[in-house]
Design a protein that fits this description.
- It is a single chain.
- The chain is mainly β.
- The protein has 7 helices and 43 strands.
- The strands form 13 sheets. Strands 36, 38, 41, 42 and 43 form a 5-stranded mixed sheet that branches. A 4-stranded mixed sheet has the order 3-9-8-5, with no helix packed on it. Strands 10-16-15-12 form a 4-stranded mixed sheet, with no helix packed on it.
- The longest helix is centred in the C-terminal third of the chain and has 26 residues, at 600-625.
- 18% of the residues are buried.
Length: 790
Amino acid sequence: HKSVLNHLNRFQEVTLYSCFASGCISAVQFYLLSESECKRNWVWNQFFVLEEYTGTDPLYVGKLHSDVDKGDGNVRYVLTGSGASSIFTIDEKTGDIHATKRLDREEQGYYTLHAQAVDSKTNAPVEDESEFIVKVQDINDNEPKFLDGPYTAGVPEMSPLGTMVVQVTATDADDPTYGNSARVVYSIIHGQPYFSVEPKTGIIRTALPNMDRETRNQYVLIIQAKDMVGQMGGLSGTTSVTVTLTDVNDNPPRFSRKSYQYSVLESVAVPSVVAKLKAADADIDSNAEMDYHIIDGDAHGVFNITTDEDTQEGVIFLQRPLDYETKSSFSLKIEATNRNIDPQFLTFGPFSDTAAVKVIVEDVNEPPVFYPLIRKLMVSEAARVGTVIGMVSASDPDSSSSAIRYSIDRNTDLERFFNVDALTGVISTAKALDRELNSVHNLTILATENQDPSQVGRGIVLIRVMDINDNAPVFAIEYETLLCENAAPGQVIQTISAVDKDEPPSGHHFYFSLAFSASNNNNFTLRDNKDNTASVLTKHADFRRQEQSLYLLPVLIVDSGSPALSSTNTLSVRVCDCDVDGIPQACGTVAFSLPQGLSTGALLAILGCIITLLALMLLIMAMLRRRKAPLFLEDERDVRENIVRYDDEGGGEEDTEAFDMVALRNLNIIRDSKVQDISPETASVYPYSASAISRTSYKTLPDNIVFQEFIWDRLKVTEVDPSAPPYDSLQTYAFEGNGSVADSLSTLELPSSDSEQSYDYLSNWGPRFKKLADLYGNLEGKYIYIYIFV
């Protein structure tokens, strides 16, 4: 070592290598100083330690030694720094350093330590502290890894040989500066012979030309990366690469057939779809887009074709109406062409195809057709009823050529001004026309087939009513003419114009003049301005409102028609009190003024008298209204029914409060009590005494007989009672027996035939009781039930 020190400068680093059978490793590394400084400094044996040591004993790292150490134990070595005591230990006497733990270079590649020699007794430093580095020496313990895998890539189909697809990269955690542990080479395990990979770069390329997506569109490759330059014993890692062949336009469209045939009804409306056809294209997306064209055929302008962008079908639609009788079939030649053509594949052939299409028109029963569809006619408003205006014509377009019947759609002629002959189609007037009410009539004429009434054709007839001079001119507006009292003679007080409902071809021209009755008018004159207006002028001044506040001036207006018509219109002229500027202040009749001799007190006295008279009248009316109505209705008044409603709901047979059933079953007690209740005043009214109406005890009779006897007794009492009303009394006994053998309960049928009760007075009650009088008049053999509610 001294020879080396003599040739090296200070702080130079020298690494010596020893070669063994397993290869060359770094054996010794020195930090060298100048010879003068080296006399009292460290001597190092070793600075490297292998990673992943698997032995059981601590791994020897190196030895520290100071030239001060004489071997007598007076020097003690101390180790500090990264990993001291936890990973690295030092023998205080010998200076030997050992690694006590398994090291991993990928976790930490080196450790920085500090060494110092101290006196073993005083712990005083005998040397300055020195720093050294222990490097962890790499071994091949990490396989290559594809951190970005798995990969997906795409390459256009039909690509040439060697087209780059994608580059894969594998990383190795081992030391790339030491040995071949991190030197990776690539190879393809699965995916040949379609693709290859460059060993050093990992670039994947196509290995076959003209790969067709339509044959196979996806490939899965397995790529391997191996360290140690691919030598035996190296570690390896793999990844997958999915390669998809992207589409190019290398396939032309093709029709599945060379000819197509479709049928369509002649009644199909424009622009209905007639047919759809599609050319197949093995490509996808934009490379399969195509356009369709009609390049030949005998349907000039009848059909057209367009592309359905969603399905790429050719849609044939109608452009003009079809007519089976005119042409029953059409022949078309359709071409389908790719929309996006790639020039580099033009050698594959023309990117288009053609097909023949035949369209058969089917006959349908069509409604009649008018020729022309819209007909214009004219008629004078003076035309008489039945005047022929014109004629319409319709025909059946079908080969059957059915007969036609004409009619008017009355929704278009609500007032029935016109008629049409059902067989000939002649249109005539049915009412007098008035152009001023309706100048144009829009009629819809219906043409119906006799063979099939459901087939109805429609035509339009526009009838224009021509004007005649049948309206006289009148004032254009209602004029309000105001005349100032101080108006000067010859002053224009009003300019008038006229209107006429007629419309002469040359326009209106009106003539104005005063009516014959006013031709000698001393107050006003009329001047025709020759422009369909006229001016009214005063003849004198000093008009007085008190003398005459209103003047009526008759004006004659004549039109220029043939014959000419005229009308007399009255112009009202009101005399007004005007200010100095000629603005009217008060017009019309002068208001009445009170006589000057009537004072305010007199007016108040008159007003007081009027108020007093009104108060007396109101008092009399109030007293009359407070008169009470009579308690009883007079005979001549109407008898009205009064129905009183109590809203009581009974309890059926369980209701024992309304009627006591026990009382009905003890009729003897009831009868005796009733007889005893009759007062001396009323006893003479009843011809039957208590002894007379006593019979067999009711207790010994069955229920039906009991009730029958009781009811007959009641009937007899009611019959002879002079105070009994002339109507039946309906009483309900809430008891259900074994079946009633009693006959009618009405007093109209009494057991005694010598009843003195007479109902002749019912006939005197008026027509309202006539029916009742008839019913009571003849009672033999009748059962009458009458219920009168009062």
